[in-house]
């Protein structure tokens, strides 16, 4: 969530109208590899459910609000 919020804030600060990030499932898959094998199962159980804010695509909330708030016109969500 913090990474995504930072992407939006950076785009606004730099005057960019595009943001690109991984969908929640892909982000979990990439980040979980950074943890020791024994901790991966526990971590995956904790983060498997998306947080209630700033999670897009599979768990689409109101993306238009975030786009308008940060002046984003184009949002790219990587799925692979």
From TrEMBL:
It comes from the Bacteria. This is Uncharacterized protein. It comes from Segetibacter aerophilus.
